[in-house]
Design a protein that fits this description.
With 195 residues, the protein is mainly alpha-helical. 55% of the residues lie in helices and 4% in strands. The protein contains eight helices and three strands, in the order αααβααααββα. It has a three-stranded mixed sheet with strand order 1-2-3. Helix 3 packs parallel to helix 6. It is globular.
């Protein structure tokens, strides 16, 4: 119809589609940390498997290099977590990975960045209070969300991208080391469609 919804705005989507019910976000930092450990450690393994000469391979769906894609997989949770300090989650924050990824010259450098992000998530979620996760954040796509909601979305985002990375590995003839299973991502909101 004539209703437009920009980005992931559950309340606006429900109104536009005349749906009842609410999108559920987790508010359990322990569960979220456990799932971040699983997803980002698997992403670290996969990133480390990428041959250096394939970093500039371009994915057919988004015309994005593996350098940008893998950096982005780690950067999105980092941006969500930083929203606790900045109070905002801007389109510029989530789009800067395109240029920032160019600083990383090897898969190992990207993996080290990912290790730093995971360490920061451990510190943040390991001591997160309900007030910290419930802090409102201005968001470019929904008007506002909480830090916890953004962290939950970023977790699903990274898990989904990791599934896509495994698909790219198939195109490149790479067999992923201990890939995630459906059981590993159980409870994480991940789209059923790969693309």
């Amino acid at each position: 119809g004539s209703v437009a919804v920009v980005g992931f705005n559950p309340a606006a989507l429900a109104r536009a589609l005349q749906l009842e019910g609410n999108v559920q976000f987790t508010d359990d930092p322990g569960w979220m940390l456990e799932k971040y450990e699983v997803v980002l450690n698997a992403a670290l393994r996969a990133t480390s498997q990428i041959p250096g000469d394939k970093l500039d391979w371009v994915s057919p769906e988004r015309e994005r290099t593996l350098r940008q894609f893998t950096y982005h997989l780690f950067d999105r949770p980092n941006v969500a977590m930083r929203s606790h300090e900045t109070g905002e989650y801007t389109a510029e924050d989530v789009g800067r990975y395109i240029e920032e990824a160019q600083r990383f010259q090897s898969p190992q450098e990207i993996a080290r960045f990912g290790e730093g992000v995971l360490a920061a998530i451990r510190r943040f979620l390991g001591s997160a209070t309900p007030e910290a996760l419930g802090k409102p954040v201005r968001s470019y796509f929904s008007g506002g969300m909480t830090v916890g909601q953004l962290m939950d979305l970023a977790l699903g985002h990274s898990a989904h991208h990791l599934k896509q990375l495994y698909h790219y590995f198939g195109l490149l003839g790479i067999s992923p080391d201990r890939p995630l299973t459906a059981r590993d991502i159980d409870g994480i909101a991940v789209p059923s469609e790969l693309f």
